[in-house]
Structures are given as structure tokens and as C-alpha cells.
Write a structure and sequence with these properties.
The complex is a heterodimer of chains A (573) and B (406).
Chain A lengths: L2 H29 L11 H4 L1 E9 L8 H18 L5 E5 L2 E7 L15 E11 L8 H4 L10 E2 L39 H16 L4 H10 L18 E4 L8 E5 L4 E2 L3 E9 L4 E8 L1 H15 L8 E5 L2 E4 L2 E2 L8 E5 L4 H12 L6 E10 L1 H30 L2 H26 L6 H30 L4 H33 L4 H32 L1 H4 L1 H4 L2 H23 L1
Parallel strand pairs in A: 5-13
Antiparallel strand pairs in A: 1-3, 1-15, 2-3, 4-7, 4-8, 4-11, 6-7, 9-10, 10-14, 11-12
Helix pairs in contact in A: 1-10, 1-13, 9-10, 9-11, 10-11, 10-13, 11-12, 11-13, 12-13
Chain B lengths: L6 H6 L19 H7 L10 H21 L3 E2 L1 H4 L1 E7 L4 H12 L5 E5 L6 E6 L4 H15 L14 E5 L1 H29 L2 H25 L2 E2 L1 H29 L10 H11 L1 H26 L3 H34 L2 H14 L1 H18 L5 H7 L20
Parallel strand pairs in B: 1-6
Antiparallel strand pairs in B: 2-4, 2-5, 3-4
Helix pairs in contact in B: 3-8, 3-12, 5-6, 7-8, 7-9, 8-9, 8-12, 9-10, 9-12, 10-12, 11-12
The chains are: A alpha+beta (573), B alpha+beta (406).
Chain lengths: 573, 406
């Protein structure tokens, strides 16, 4: 092929390559997977619940990937137990992120309950005042809780019952939150170190076998505060703890070492007790647990109050502590009943059934976005994008005249590819477009248009030196290419670092910004440059009124005139 | 496309070649905007760099002082708390009453956000537990009957978000790690891509950008959210991108400048700034227009949230970044060059040559030539330029600019 012809086809060939790329992308979009040409939307755009859980280890070390994976599995099972479709549980660094689309995701907020269930004998129970603390006069004389109703095995199976007066196991949004104001002397400690210190302190006082320390701990305990132990208590030691917060009949308990732990639970189901019209959680023990349950009830029945009670301790707090009325109870079944709603009994059953988490988690962020708000966010994002695009185009048309259309075409070409790739990535790697991602796309419009600006200004440079539009374009491109590549390299490094290191929502932002940066390079080489190259060869585009380059040509002419005059002078010298 | 330089062009680049531009006075014939547009020089940035340093230092000092003494207005993500949002537009006091009835305490704030069909009530409060949230949701639903997207009252139309107080610091910690990694990678990249002095100047401009953006946040009292913290990292990208583009031109203009005693490094750098001026303005505008759109829409329709936080921080950062790449990074580069290395000696040589006898002779010759060319006696300024003295800021570079780098 003769070189002249080759260079004439060159731009068209590049455009062809891009068209082929687009064709491949959209063929994949329409003929693979679910064939739906819509990207996966984040819950902030379609409505739903997202919960970010941060692991909290007793010794303050980083959680191992193994335990995170195990926790992910268990939480996944719990989420599926809720029966809402399309849920996702992913590990993001040291965090676990639960996403539940739709309006039914509220319960997902409670799924991170560690669910370390221990059944401990009650040694003492003291009612607490409204301030969440034990009144001083009661402290010296542990009194049986007067209102603790008896455990009466009903005629049919469930032998133990928790009094209705007990609160529903209100799943705390922050199961293991540190005290709200870290004391001044913790300055410089990381949250991990603070947590470690609190757990160690709580264990030293509240799990002591020394009666004097126990008494001091009972007095010091404030039931209105979140429990720093929360699932990190040692089951082989005694425990001083409160009932689940929010209860009308709060008590502080001194409990003996654990007799049964949650691992011994074979199954847990939520059910409605039609006789008493209340929701209950039915437990079924494995054989070991079943024997232990028989022993524990057999022991308790012989004791005086309050030692005739057993406590179900979930994440270091007492869910219920009924009085045993009959024992030993055989058969390995029991029922926990309380102030449950249908949803909360189901939650507790799920939590117990799907095992205890290997880690205790703190809910760092829990967001439920209504479908309404999601929809208006999506609209706002799209509207902002459309407006952004429009103003950029108007500005380009005003400044570059008809060449602005080439910018428009480039932006359009880039937009098509970005959209297709987002759909595909949603299918392949679960990329979800969220509000922050839309922000990244909109900011990316400016970045993409900017490549054209760099190119155009380089063309101007060349024309200022006296070249025609036609000859300025290839030379301008040779220089612009380098600048565009270095500029985009920096942007790409920024988005890649952000994507790899940032947490939460901002990942979407970094991702779309990075994606538009990469596509910017592709588009400027395969679309913008060929288009401008083609334009430079046409008579129409060469007109100053069309390309807006008249002023530059004027300067070039003046320079030539002055230069010629000077050369004249040099020759005459 | 040919990368070869035509013989005639190459000839112009030699030491003995005639300097066309030096004889061409753009200033007398074109207005400010025309010179700005054509990149033929409108602003003497480098020559007045002391002034720009002063302005830069003042801005920086105000920012640092504000960060130090006023601090930041940290959002809910740093203090922990609950945010409840539901569609509709009702009286704030009514919402406060319902809140008080359900929770027993006062909310931190109740505000109306968004506009028209998408208006929302936003309640911020201390961290509530699940039970309190459910109670409040039920109370709000009974009282205000918020409607879902299909227009029916629905309790699920109430959005709730909880944040623990360690979340913000967790994100900030991650952001700081990201910052360190980014700085390390970028420092390596631009040191390879450019020379040492340019790397220093670009990084200094970047530090300035981050400090001033943070300063503006502190000064104006804008709310800092995790999205803002992360947004600052993106600004680093912008900032460097801008510096890279200006330096690219500086590099091109100053290539070989030390071999020719006609122009100083500073003059060539000033030329580069002027030639990229329109680009910088356009880039800033094209970057900012969509961001402004985003900001307006986000505030108007949604009131608050990630979208607004990201847009706002980007806008502030882009403006600061554009300023610093022109008025701080390049002057700093020239100062570094003139203080250390061969540029200082070269500048002296050029200036000495200009004030020397040779230049007086050239002055006379230039007058003769100019009269012959234009038929009018030239002004003194024109003459000095013609003799190869102070060139116009917009003059063509005279170094060996067509030499390929690789």
C-alpha cells in the first residue's frame, strides 16, 4: 500500500478499531449473562440496607483472613435465613459488608450479633435502678428477683420458659461499641488498642472469682452503657453482667461458669405459641447439650432462690433467666420466650441456628435507604450528569466552534464504552454503581474533555508558528500525546491507590474515576485524534469560522511578515 | 505522520538563526484576551514571582492558622450517631415533638433538605439502638404517613443510617495510608518522568493544594465527612495532573536553552505558563462545570450526602490546584533552578550579554532594519526586543525544541 493512501486510511482504521471494541462490549452485554443492559445499582440508588461490620478481636490484633471468611459464611447463612433475595456479604479489608436490597433489609442490621450463647447458673440477681446501676442498699444483700416467674414445663415438649416480662433480645445496632468518650489517657491508642484494654479490664473485674472484687464490680456496673465484653467473656469463669438493655426489669447477675455453649444447639426455630399468643424461640440441643441441660435443671431444682434460675447469656448479656420448676428435664428441647415480635424471634432463632461468629463485630455503619430516597438519588445523579455533559458541550462549542462537536462525539464514544463495561463488571465481579460512582463518572466528563483541550492547545501552538491547520494537527498530536499520557498516568495512580486502600462507598468513586481515565486514553487515541485528523484534511474544517482558529492564523501571519522584514535586514547588513 | 523536522525549521533553531519572535511586538497590536487566547503572552508570572510567593504564603498561612485554631467541623461519621430521613415537608417543631415522644430526648437537629417532589426531613441524633429506631419509625409513620415511590404511605419510606464514632477515624486512617502510598508512587513517577527540581516543585504545589483545601474547609466551617477526606486524595491527582501539563511545556521550551545565550530559563518558563494558560483555564472550567452541576443538583434535590461532599471538595480543590500550578509550581521551579545548578550561571551570562556592547551594536542595527521593514521609526521597547534583549512573554521559544527526546 502506498504510504499516502495508508495515512489516508489511518484515522478510519483507528475509528474502526474503536467501533469493533464497542461491538464486542455490547455483544457481551446483550448475549451473555442475564442479557439485561442495566448496571448493578448500589443500595443508595435502589433502596436497601447496607451494614459495615468491623471486626473487634479481644487482643486487639488484626483478624485473620480465615476467621473473617468463616464469619462471612455464617453471616451469609443468617442473611439467607431472613429470606430476602439478592443479598450479598463481602469482605472489604478487615470489614464485612452486608448488602440487602429492597425495603425488607432492616433485620440485617442485627445479623452481626456475635451470638455466643452460654447457659450459666445464676448465683445472685439484684434489680437495678432506673439509672442502670445497682442501688447501694441492695448491694450487700443479693435479693432474689421477686418477679422472676417459674419455669413450668408445659404439657408438651418445651420444658423451660422465659418469662414474658423479660425483654426481647433487642439486637443492638452497636453490639460491641466502646464507651462513647474514650478517656483522656487513651490518647494515642488506636481503637483496636482501646478495645483490647477495655476487654482486659472488664475481664479482670467482672470475671473475678474473688467475692470482694465481685461485689465492687456489681456496684460499679452500669447497665445503661454498652458492654465492652460483648461476646468476649471467658465461659470458664464466673461473670457479672446485666440483662439485655432496654428492659423494664433490669437486673445485675452474678453467674457461674458456663454449663452449655451455643455450639451445642442443634436447631433453633421461631414460633408462635398460640395458647399464650406470644412469639418464642424453640431450641433443640445436640446430645451433649441435651445431657447438660438435664443436669443443669436437675441441679437447679434443688436450690433456693435465686440459685434455682438458669441464665441464657447471649454476647455476655442475659437474654432471660427463668426459675427452674421441674428437673431434670430430658429430651434436649427448651423454649426461650420473651417480649418478641415475629421478626425479632426469627432473628434470634437465625442467629442461634447459624452458629456463633468467630469474631466479635462492631457495626461501623448501618444504612437503610428507602426505595423512594434511592430513586430520587438516582434521578439527581443522572440529572447532574446530563447537566454536566450539556454545559461542557456548550462551552466546547463556544470555544472550539465546530470542533466542539468532535469533543461531543468523543465524550459520547467514551460514555457508551463506560456504560457497557459497567454492566459487564456488574455481572462479572459484582461491581455496583452507587452515588459516589456517579460522582466519579461526572467528574470523569471533565477529565475526558480535557484531553481534547490539551490536544487543541497544541494544535494552536503549531499554528502560531505558521503551520496550516492541516499540517499542525499531526505535529500537535505528537506533542499532545505525551502530555495526555503523563497527565492520565497520574490520575490513574491516584484512583488505583484510592480503590485499593479506601473503604466503603468511596471505592465506587475511585473505580469509575479510574475507568473513565483509562477509557479517556483509549478514546483520545482511537476516536478524538482520528476525528481531528480527518477534519484537518477537509476544506470545510479548515475555515477559520468553522474551527475558530482565525486569531491564531492572524498571529502567525503577522509573525511571518515581521520575520520576513527582519531577514531582509539581516541580508542587507 | 512525520516526526522529522523539516530542514528549514531545523536551521532556525541554530544559534545564528534569526529570532523572528523577538522582532514581533504582539503587545502593541493585540488586546489582553486575544493575547491570552493565542498564548502570545499576557501575564508576566515568573517576573513577578516575589509577589506570587507573597500571595501564596499569605493564603497558606491563613489556611494553616485556621486549621490550627478553628479546627474542622466533623460530621456525624466522626462523632457517631443516627440519621433518619423521610420524604415529605412538614414543620420542624412537629418532627421534634414526635421524636421527643418516641425517644424521650431531643434530636440534635431537624432540617428540611431537597426541594419540590424530593424534599425530605432529616433528623440527626445521638446513636439510637434498634428498639429506639423502631419506635421512632413507627411514631413518624403514624404521624406523617411518608409516601413511598408509588405514592402510598409506607413505613419503609423512612431511611435510617447509623454510624459508629470510630468509623470516621477508621476511614481517615485508611486515607492517610493511601496518601503516603500515593505520594511515594507519584514521587517516583514524576522523578522519572521529569527532573528532580520539577518533582520537588510539583510535590510542593500538591502539599499547598491539600493544605489550602483543608484550610478553606476549616475557615468556612464546611462539614467534613469521610467522603471529603477521600475527596482530598483525588485532589492530589488533579493537582499533579495540572502541574504535569504545565511542566511538560516548560520542559519543551527550555530544552537546550543553556546552549543559547539568548533567553534565560525564567523567560522560557514564563512563556510556557502563558502558552498553557488557556489550557489551564479551559481545564479548570471544563472540570468545574460538571462539578458545579453536580453540586447544585445534589444540594437542590438531595440536600446532603456523599454526592454533595464529593462535589464540594473537588470544586474547591480544582480551583486551588489551578492557581497553584500556574502561580506557585512554575515560579518555584524557576527559583529552584536559578539557585542550584547551571541555570544560575546561564542566566547571568544572558543578562550580561544583553547589557554588553554587542547589544548596543545590535540595537543600532535593529533600528535600521525596522525602519527598512515597517517604514516607521521603532519605539525603544521594540528596539530592545529586536536586539534580542527581554523577549515578549509570548515569544516563540528559541531552544533546540525539535530535537527528539528519546
Amino acid at each position: 500500500m502506498p504510504p499516502s493512501q495508508g495515512s489516508a486510511q489511518h484515522p478510519l482504521r483507528l475509528l474502526g478499531v474503536y467501533a469493533a471494541l464497542l461491538a464486542v462490549i455490547y455483544a457481551l452485554v446483550f448475549f451473555t449473562g442475564d442479557k439485561a443492559p442495566t448496571p448493578k445499582l448500589g443500595i443508595d440508588l435502589q433502596g436497601g440496607t447496607r451494614v459495615t461490620l468491623t471486626a473487634r478481636t479481644p487482643d486487639g490484633s488484626k483478624p485473620s483472613q480465615d476467621s473473617l471468611k468463616k464469619a462471612q459464611e455464617i453471616i451469609e447463612n443468617r442473611v439467607n435465613g431472613l429470606g430476602v433475595g439478592g443479598s450479598e456479604v463481602v469482605i472489604d479489608g478487615d470489614n464485612i459488608v452486608i448488602t440487602v436490597p429492597g425495603d425488607d433489609g432492616q433485620q440485617a442490621r442485627a445479623l452481626a450479633t456475635t451470638a455466643k450463647l452460654y447457659i450459666r447458673p445464676v448465683l445472685a440477681a439484684i434489680p437495678v435502678g432506673p439509672d442502670g446501676k445497682v442501688p447501694t442498699q441492695n448491694a450487700t444483700q443479693p435479693a432474689p428477683a421477686p418477679e422472676a416467674p417459674p419455669v413450668v414445663p408445659p404439657a408438651d415438649q418445651p420444658p423451660a420458659e422465659v418469662p414474658p416480662a423479660e425483654p426481647a433480645p433487642q439486637p443492638r445496632v452497636f453490639p460491641a461499641q466502646a464507651p462513647t468518650q474514650p478517656p483522656a489517657d487513651t490518647g494515642g491508642l488506636t481503637p483496636q488498642e482501646i478495645a483490647q484494654k477495655e476487654i482486659a479490664e472488664a475481664r479482670a473485674t467482672r470475671q473475678s472469682a474473688d467475692p470482694a472484687v465481685q461485689q465492687a464490680a456489681v456496684l460499679a456496673l452500669d447497665c445503661s452503657k454498652p458492654d465492652p465484653l460483648a461476646g468476649n467473656d471467658d465461659p470458664t469463669l464466673p461473670l457479672i453482667t446485666c440483662s439485655i438493655p432496654g428492659s423494664q426489669s433490669s437486673e445485675v447477675y452474678l453467674l457461674g461458669p458456663s454449663k452449655i455453649d451455643g455450639q451445642e444447639i442443634k436447631d433453633a426455630t421461631a414460633g408462635l405459641n398460640s395458647q399464650q399468643a406470644r412469639h418464642e424461640v424453640n431450641l433443640e440441643f445436640k446430645s451433649g447439650g441435651s445431657d447438660a441441660w438435664a443436669a443443669i435443671t436437675g441441679d437447679a431444682i434443688k436450690q433456693q432462690s435465686p440459685q434455682n434460675r438458669v441464665a441464657f447469656v447471649l454476647d455476655s448479656r442475659v437474654v432471660s433467666a427463668p426459675v427452674v420448676q421441674q428437673g431434670p428435664q430430658l429430651g434436649g428441647r427448651t423454649t426461650i420466650s420473651g417480649n418478641f415480635t415475629a421478626a425479632s424471634s426469627k432473628e434470634l432463632a437465625n442467629t442461634l441456628k447459624y452458629g456463633s461468629l468467630p469474631l466479635s463485630f462492631q457495626t461501623s455503619e448501618a444504612e437503610t435507604v428507602s426505595a423512594t430516597l434511592g430513586l430520587s438519588s438516582l434521578r439527581a445523579g443522572l440529572l447532574a450528569g446530563a447537566i454536566g455533559l450539556l454545559v461542557v458541550l456548550l462551552y466546547c462549542l463556544a470555544y472550539y466552534r465546530m470542533l466542539g462537536f468532535l469533543t461531543a462525539l468523543s465524550l459520547f464514544a467514551s460514555g457508551l464504552a463506560v456504560y457497557g463495561i459497567m454492566v459487564l463488571l456488574g455481572r462479572w465481579i459484582g461491581f455496583t454503581l452507587d452515588l459516589a460512582g456517579i460522582a466519579g463518572l461526572i467528574i470523569g466528563i471533565g477529565m475526558t474533555a480535557d484531553s481534547f483541550v490539551v490536544f487543541f492547545e497544541r494544535i494552536k501552538d503549531e499554528m502560531r508558528e505558521g503551520r496550516s491547520f492541516r499540517s499542525a494537527v499531526p505535529r500537535g498530536w505528537a506533542r499532545a500525546r505525551r502530555t495526555i499520557l503523563s497527565g492520565n498516568a497520574v490520575s490513574l495512580i491516584a484512583s488505583a491507590v484510592l480503590y485499593l486502600l479506601a473503604v466503603g462507598q468511596v471505592k465506587g468513586f475511585a473505580f469509575t474515576l479510574g475507568l473513565t481515565t483509562v477509557l479517556d486514553v483509549v478514546v483520545v487515541v482511537l476516536v478524538t485524534m482520528p476525528l481531528v485528523m480527518l477534519a484537518s484534511r477537509s476544506q470545510f474544517w479548515a475555515k477559520p469560522g468553522v474551527n475558530g482558529l482565525g486569531a491564531i492564523q492572524e498571529v502567525a501571519r503577522e509573525r511571518r511578515a515581521a520575520g520576513a522584514a527582519l531577514s531582509e535586514g539581516v541580508r542587507t547588513r | 505522520m512525520s516526526n522529522q523536522t523539516s530542514p528549514s525549521l531545523r536551521k532556525r533553531d541554530t544559534e545564528d538563526a534569526v529570532d523572528y519572535d523577538a522582532n514581533f511586538d504582539t503587545k502593541s497590536q493585540h488586546g489582553f484576551f486575544s493575547r491570552l487566547y493565542t498564548g502570545t503572552g499576557a501575564i508576566d508570572v515568573i517576573g513577578r514571582r516575589r509577589m506570587w510567593y507573597l500571595i501564596t504564603a499569605v493564603i497558606l498561612l491563613i489556611s494553616l492558622a485556621s486549621i490550627l485554631f478553628r479546627g474542622f467541623n466533623f460530621g456525624i461519621d466522626f462523632e457517631g450517631g443516627t440519621r433518619i430521613q423521610f420524604p415529605g415537608s412538614v414543620e420542624q417543631s412537629q418532627v421534634e415533638d414526635v421524636y421527643r415522644g418516641a425517644v424521650g430526648t431531643d434530636p440534635e437537629s431537624v432540617q428540611k433538605v431537597g426541594a419540590g417532589a424530593t424534599s425530605n426531613m432529616l433528623i440527626r441524633s445521638e446513636a439510637l439502638n434498634q428498639g429506639q429506631v423502631e419506635k421512632l419509625q413507627a411514631a413518624l409513620y403514624t404521624e406523617f404517613q411518608p409516601k413511598d415511590s408509588s405514592g402510598k404511605p409506607n413505613i419503609a419510606a423512612i431511611s435510617v443510617s447509623d454510624v459508629s464514632e470510630t468509623w470516621g477515624s477508621q476511614i481517615t486512617k485508611k486515607a492517610l495510608i493511601a496518601l503516603a502510598v500515593f505520594l511515594a508512587i507519584v514521587a517516583v513517577y514524576i522523578t522519572i518522568r521529569f527532573e528532580r527540581d520539577m518533582a520537588i516543585a510539583a510535590l510542593a504545589a500538591m502539599v499547598f493544594d491539600v493544605a489550602v483545601t483543608a484550610g478553606i474547609y476549616s475557615l468556612v466551617g464546611l462539614e467534613v465527612s469521610p467522603a471529603t477526606v477521600i475527596g482530598i486524595l483525588t485532589i492530589l491527582g488533579f493537582s499533579l495532573y495540572d502541574s504535569v501539563i504545565v511542566f511538560d511545556k516548560v520542559e519543551e521550551n527550555t530544552r537546550g536553552v543553556l546552549h543559547v545565550n539568548r533567553r534565560t530559563y525564567a523567560e522560557q518558563a514564563n512563556l510556557a505558563v502563558n502558552q498553557t494558560f488557556m489550557r489551564s483555564i479551559n481545564t479548570a472550567l471544563i472540570g468545574i462545570l460538571p462539578i458545579v452541576g453536580l453540586l447544585v443538583i445534589a444540594v437542590w434535590l438531595l440536600g446532603v450526602g456523599t454526592l454533595k461532599d464529593l462535589a464540594l471538595v473537588q470544586m474547591v480543590g480544582l480551583l486551588v490546584g489551578t492557581y497553584s500550578s500556574i502561580f506557585f509550581a512554575t515560579p518555584l521551579l524557576v527559583s529552584l533552578k536559578e539557585r542550584f545548578g547551571p541555570v544560575a550561571a546561564h542566566t547571568k551570562k544572558v543578562l550580561a550579554k544583553r547589557s554588553g556592547v554587542a547589544s548596543a551594536r545590535a540595537l543600532a542595527a535593529a533600528e535600521q532594519r525596522a525602519v527598512a521593514a515597517t517604514g516607521r521609526p521603532p519605539s525603544e521597547a521594540e528596539l530592545r526586543r529586536a536586539a534580542g534583549q527581554t523577549p515578549e512573554p509570548g515569544a516563540r521559544p528559541s531552544g533546540k525544541r525539535h530535537k527528539r527526546r528519546n
